[in-house]
Design a protein that fits this description.
two-stranded antiparallel sheet; 4 strands
């Protein structure tokens, strides 16, 4: 497979609606584009978010993990990112019921495919962060489907994308393609949190960053702003859908 350059962030999608809307970031996964990266400062700046201190009930700081890798809440800045993303999500919990219904129909289809390719079940929440499980989701950059694959990327992964046919909208075929790619990324990176980061920012960008850093810790890496918050967004969906009662007082 040809190497992919970093994905351009999709600030345009967020500027079309209020900052409180917490729409899924349909980031152009694995986009082959120029090196110019649009900042998501508007989306992820702390000043744009509701103040955690004035948000009413405090977010319960529970043990959270992604594919067995614990969220290091004692690490500098990690708890703040977690609180901000969760607080932003809280503003749109009115859609949680319909999202749960879509997930209940979606997970039984993709879970066996994840298992077949030995992908941890936590990756079932990536399409929620990418598309909100909206079958016909298309980003301004052209990423489409549940997994928000760019046309060129989808073709590289064996999907048909053209006039009259676009298999990115076929949940089974798109999930198989995404799993093949995730499996390959893990074989290269050896960490599921880094795989998630590479899915968002592009493997080329992440590998270059790993060569500069003296560690392989997603939570400490110097990453684009969207990617720094990407895994936190995936984890919010995991936490809210897998144990909603634990966050009921905060979300209400």
């Amino acid at each position: 497979m040809a190497a992919f350059r970093p994905a351009i962030s999709v600030a345009a999608k967020f500027t079309q609606s209020p900052i409180t809307s917490f729409q899924p970031a349909t980031s152009p996964v694995l986009l082959q584009a120029d090196a110019t990266r649009t900042s998501l400062l508007t989306t992820y700046s702390t000043s744009a978010w509701p103040s955690t201190a004035s948000a009413g009930n405090e977010l319960p700081m529970l043990d959270v993990n992604f594919c067995g890798e614990c969220l290091p809440l004692d690490q500098s800045g990690v708890a703040d990112r977690w609180k901000h993303v969760f607080t932003l999500f809280r503003n749109n919990t009115s859609d949680l019921g319909s999202l749960q219904k879509r997930a209940d129909a979606f997970f039984p289809i993709i879970d066996p495919i994840l298992e077949q390719y030995d992908i941890p079940q936590d990756f079932r929440y990536v399409p929620l962060a990418e598309s909100g499980l909206k079958a016909k989701a298309v980003s301004p950059m052209g990423a489409a489907g549940y997994w928000q694959l760019m046309p060129g990327t989808a073709r590289e992964l064996g999907l048909k994308v053209g006039k009259g046919v676009d298999e990115r909208f076929n949940v089974h075929k798109a999930t198989v393609a995404a799993c093949k790619y995730l499996r390959k990324l893990y074989d290269q990176l050896g960490s599921w949190s880094l795989v998630a980061a590479a899915y968002n920012a592009g493997p080329g960008y992440l590998k270059n960053q790993l060569r500069r850093d003296a560690h392989r810790d997603y939570y400490r890496m110097n990453l684009p702003r969207e990617t720094r918050y990407y895994l936190f967004r995936v984890l919010v969906y995991k936490e809210v859908l897998s144990r909603p009662d634990d966050y009921l007082s905060f979300l209400s």
